[in-house]
Amino acid sequence: MGREHREHREHREQGGRRNGADTERGSATIWMIGLMTLIFAVAAAITFTGMARVARHRAQSAADLSALAAARLAFADPNRGCAEATSLAVGNGAKVTRCSIDGDGIADIQVALRLLLPVAGGVTVMAGARAGPVHISDFAN
């Protein structure tokens, strides 16, 4: 019984470790937490970048369609052209911030689209487009 007692006492004096082999208990947990945090941060960055790209494309599509709608009515009724452009932009989730139709029938449209990002808040994405009449003589050559 004396030998067993002595081994137990030596074990306690070493801090519960046998031959110092268990000096890194729990370090794998810390490394895994760090790795999971890194993976989460990268996934969030990729997700936010993707959301921003989609919003940019949506804003550009709204601007393009709005400019075409305004140009279609440029000579007949320029005021109605801008109203039609605004209606189309709203239908695409955007807001017209600038609409002008010059004397040559060229419509210049700028739209804004609000993008809400989790944690980061809201960002406004801007896009612009120009459209005008096409002269048939341009295609004859």
Number of strands: 3
Structural class: alpha+beta
Number of helices: 4
List low-confidence stretches: none
β-sheet strand percentage: 15-25%
Measure the end-to-end span.
110 Å
In short:
This is Helicase/secretion neighborhood TadE-like protein. This protein is α+β, with helices and mostly antiparallel strands and 141 residues long.
Task: Write structural notes for this entry.
The chain crosses the membrane at residues 28-48. InterPro entries: Rv3654c-like (IPR021202), Tad_N (IPR028087). It comes from Streptosporangium subroseum. A hairpin with a 5-residue loop joins strand 1 and strand 2. The N and C termini lie far apart (110 Å). A three-stranded antiparallel β-sheet has the order 1-2-3. It has helices at 2-13, 27-72, 78-91, 137-140; strands at residues 95-101, 107-117, 121-131. Helix 2 (27-72) runs antiparallel to helix 3 (78-91). The protein is built from four helices and three strands, in the order H-H-H-E-E-E-H. It has 141 residues and is an alpha+beta fold. The model has no long low-confidence stretch (mean pLDDT 84). The protein has one domain (23-131).
Task: Describe the secondary structure blueprint for this structure.
Layout: H1 2-13, H2 27-72, H3 78-91, E1 95-101, E2 107-117, E3 121-131, H4 137-140
Antiparallel strand pairs: 1-2, 2-3
